[in-house]
Amino acid sequence: MGVQIKKTPQLTVGPDGYRGWDIECEWGTFDNADCHPNRPTSHLILITPDYVQALLESGPILYRGGVSSASEDSGRLFAHFERDGQRWTWELFEADWWDGGGPEILIGRWPD
Fold it and tell me: Where are the domains of the chain?
């Protein structure tokens, strides 16, 4: 069993009228889990195993104005994102949704 992810509706409605979700786990809150360019990069991300596998097999791809890639090192799995001359790396871990639903998912956090 992996790290448990919990999703709850946001209490406030954004300026665009959208009410999103607060997503969190024991490591913190996912402030920008999808690397959106208009928000600061988060220490936690969510990524599907299929997407990571595609990156490992096919190499880097363009994503949200940057480049996504993945790598393996000594049995550890990593996701990388480069944009505007900066590069971020997250170590990936298996995760489970609190309700047993949702897609297969991995949590990425900045490595120690």
Answer: 3-109
